[in-house]
Write a structure and sequence with these properties.
Blueprint (H helix, E strand, L loop, with lengths): L11 H8 L26
């Protein structure tokens, strides 16, 4: 199973706190958290 979610947070700590509440972890799933960065030459949304 795979997928992704976008989480808006003020800090990585806040994003990780939100991720820790994911029910997928209760069944042995793994999550990866990473920060979005704008692509070179693109304006941030």
């Amino acid at each position: 199973m795979s997928g992704f979610s976008l989480v808006e947070a003020d800090s990585m700590d806040q994003a990780l706190s939100t991720a820790r509440a994911c029910p997928f972890l209760d069944i042995g799933g793994l999550l990866e958290a990473s920060e979005l960065v704008p692509m070179t030459g693109q304006k941030p949304a």
